[in-house]
Design goal:
By secondary structure, this protein is α/β, with parallel strands linked by helices. The chain contains 7 helices and 9 strands, in the order E-H-E-H-H-E-H-E-H-E-H-E-H-E-E-E. A 9-stranded mixed beta sheet has the order 5-4-3-2-6-1-7-9-8. The longest helix is centred in the first third of the chain and has 12 residues. It binds nicotinamide-adenine-dinucleotide and ligand HJL. The site of nicotinamide-adenine-dinucleotide (NAD) has 28 residues, from strand 1, strand 2, helix 2 and helix 7. It comes from Methanococcoides methylutens.
């Protein structure tokens, strides 16, 4: 396989929403699930999010546990995994938390449609990888990440990036915490948005495990027939 082993980790409401219709973040996970997510971050080579998530949530994507950061350091790695933003048009704010908080490498993946002056500014903060004309070419990007030594990649959403990764056959497993709340709203982001699969292309999953966690349930799925 010339791409990293890749999993999506997400938290959704009982009706499948990952935030409100205003794209406002909701606390879906309990403490146990957040700690599990931290462990996943600490054991990944890189974490990837879409620009929509950066603009909506301004996440830092750092490992929160000091002990886990120290364990990474002991193994000769940076305290935090490589933080990657999928940002076709180079819209990542230069003061985003992803740049300000925590040590470690950052990658901003842009396309040919990103303005040259913004790309230059982003290059002061991150390694900028350019693929695709109008949108990031995720398949080409994954090959490049693999050749950089990224073998285990965590995708933390949002809805559009999840769709783009899944529909390009780039995801091996999906971990979904289902919380005890209903968010509603036809336009609220779900675990997988985008344009949706044609009936003949719908992805099949194999249930790997289910576990009661906090006030919800953690479902782990393997994606069948990834590329
Ligand atoms: N509950 C959770 O686990 C969780 C996790 C992450 C985000 N979220 C929520 O998700 C929402 C953001 O999701 P979203 O769908 O708006 O944005 P997103 O984070 O999925 O980013 C999507 C953007 O990525 C860009 N992009 C670049 N190249 C692309 C490509 N090849 N294919 C597709 N997109 C490409 C596009 O500009 C697109 O608009 C926020 O409300 C956030 O709070 C929830
Ligand atoms: N696992 C999870 N459970 C939730 O209940 C929730 N709202 C998110 N939302 C994901 C979102 O992208 C967050 O913004 C980052 O998880 C924040 O990451 P930081 O703390 O800034 O490192 N994720």
């Amino acid at each position: 396989m010339d791409r990293p082993f890749t999993f999506i980790n997400s938290a959704m409401s009982a009706d499948g929403k990952i935030s409100t219709k205003e794209r406002k973040q909701v606390r879906i996970s309990g403490d146990v699930d957040f700690d599990r997510m931290d462990e996943l971050r600490a054991t990944s080579d890189a974490i990837m999010v879409g620009i929509g998530t950066v603009l909506a949530d301004d996440p830092s994507l750092t490992v929160k546990s000091e002990a886990r950061r120290a364990a990474r350091k002991n193994k000769g790695a940076d305290e935090n995994p490589v933080r990657i933003v999928i940002d076709s048009k180079g819209r990542t704010p230069l003061d985003a938390d992803i740049f300000i908080k925590g040590e470690g490498k950052r990658v901003v993946a842009v396309s040919g449609s990103a303005p040259a002056d913004k790309v230059e500014e982003l290059q002061q903060k991150a390694l900028v990888i350019r693929t695709g004309d109008d949108q990031v070419d995720l398949c080409a990007l994954m090959k490049e990440l693999n050749s950089m030594g990224i073998k285990r990649l965590m995708v933390e959403g949002g809805a559009t990036l999840n769709w783009a990764m899944l529909s390009n056959g780039l995801v091996d497993e999906v971990y979904s915490f289902v919380g005890n709340l209903l968010i509603g709203g036809a336009s609220a982001p779900t675990l997988v948005d985008g344009s949706g699969f044609a009936e003949s292309d719908i992805l099949s999953l194999e249930l790997m495990s289910m576990e009661k966690m906090d006030e919800g349930v953690l479902l782990k799925w393997a994606v069948i027939n990834t590329g």
